[in-house]
Amino acid sequence: MPNPSAFLPGPTGLGTSAARLFAQPAGGFAVPQDLGCVPGPRTVRQPPLVFAQRPWADGSMPALYCPLAVRVDHALGELVNERLVEWAEKIGLHEGRIETFRQTGFGHLVTLAHPDVDDPDRLLLAGQMNAAWWACDDYYADETDLGADPQLLASRLALAMSALDAPPPADEFGDELEAQLKSDPVLVSLTSARDHVAVHSTPSQLARVNLTSFQMWVSWNAYGAWRQSGEPVEAWRYLAARQHDSFYTSMTLSDIVGGYEVPGNLFYEDRVHRAVMRAGTAAVIVNDLHSAIREAADELPDCNIVLLVAAERGCTLREAAERAVALHNDIVAAFEADCHELRAIPSPELHHFLWALGGWLGGGLEWHGTTNRYTTEE
Ligand SMILES: CC(C)=CCC/C(C)=C(\C)COP(=O)(O)OP(=O)(O)O
Asked: Which superkingdom does the taxonomy of this entry point to (predicted)?
């Protein structure tokens, strides 16, 4: 892969020298006490992240400042993707659309996004969880021709919560719920993916995945309400909701897939939380940039930062996309600075996790540029 920084000018602010993340721990603030850090070296593959100006789409847009993909292993991605397709077929997810699902390549996404992990089974759990979230997104929230309906959204998402976190038995009421949960492949996919996550996670990590899903769905309910009322949505309001509806959700899997745990009190420590949110938001702006055209085509267009900025400012889609790129780049530069600052916290798990977020950013951009999800019509 060519190094884009070789032919594109680098940014003038943060990260310009930055080819090497984590080379120099920064000091300057007190190390929090009692955060449950587990000291000690880890022997995992973590080559230094290389932040660079990366061309995207047809190369005519301003570059995205983002780590390079750490690992591009097509054969491993294909293996994970085929296992994911087998799983989807078994539970009836995407019936009649399985070839489209195969081509979307979520197995490739997770292989790119978790570059520290070679184990196909651990990558599969990420593929299953992401595929299940995306199935909710497509069938419940976004794709009108797949049955998404804003009037049904909140009720469907309430059941999705039960699919991830089933209530205790409640006599005949519980039986009815169980029958419902088994009747919809989207819900089955959530339960099945969650069960696989549970095999590899601590109770606290599993609860983190559940609760992060639920907070994401609150934002989806807001989008559903906006679609129903037809009220104009300001870009700032959308971005605020997007914070909890971002690839932050996917990134909560990174330590589970990697076989370690960022302790809860560290994961939710303010500065760490902000860094993780920045990474999730930057990654999802990449998604909005790639999906703007497809989302505009739905009869009930989806919220998307490019479309909203264009509508709000009366500018062209290209100008709006340029604004989104600039925002993305600022957020990634701030994330990069966070990573340097957080080196001062003596937790190998945290350092691994921050590295993994950078890996996710790099792999996520790679996948968005290669999947056919945003380029082909069904
Ligand atoms: C975490 C996860 C995979 C959730 C699915 C929904 C989500 C946050 C995205 C994939 C990004 O949002 P969007 O709905 O715009 O995604 P698509 O453009 O439909 O792929």
From this structure: Bacteria
pLDDT band at 279 (very low <50, low <70, confident <90, very high): very high
**Shortest-distance atom of ligand 1 to CA 134:** 5
- Give the residue whose CA is nearest to atom 10 of ligand 1: 134
CATH of domain 66-370: 1.10.600.10
Alpha helix segments (H runs only) across the chain = 74-91, 98-104, 106-113, 120-136, 150-164, 171-183, 185-200, 203-229, 235-242, 248-251, 254-258, 264-267, 270-296, 305-313, 317-342, 348-370
Is 306 touching ligand 1 by the criterion CB < 6 Å? no
| Burial label, 23 (beta-carbon count in 10 A; 0-12, 13-18, 19+) | exposed
Integer Cα distance of 373 and 355 in angstroms: 27
ipTM of the complex: 0.95
Domain segments of the chain: what residues? Answer: 66-370
- Rounded-to-integer distance, Cα 242 and Cα 333, Å: 19
Q: How many CB atoms lie within 10 A of CB 39?
A: 8
Using the predicted structure, report yes or no on whether residue 11 has a pLDDT greater than 50. Answer: no
pTM: 0.88
The residue nearest atom 15 of ligand 1, judged by CA position, is 288
How many angstroms does the Cα of residue 32 sit away from the middle of ligand 1?
A: 34
Q: How far is the CA of 137 from the centre of ligand 1 (A)?
A: 7
Nearest atom of ligand 1 to the alpha carbon of 246: 8
pLDDT in tens, 195-238: 999 999 999 999 999 999 999 999 999 999 999 998 889 999 99
Question: Is 291 close to ligand 1, i.e. is its CB under 6 Å away?
Answer: yes
Quick: pLDDT tens for 303-317.
899 999 999 999 999
Nearest to 122 by CA among 296, 11, 255: 255
- Cα(186)–Cα(150) distance, rounded to whole angstroms? 17
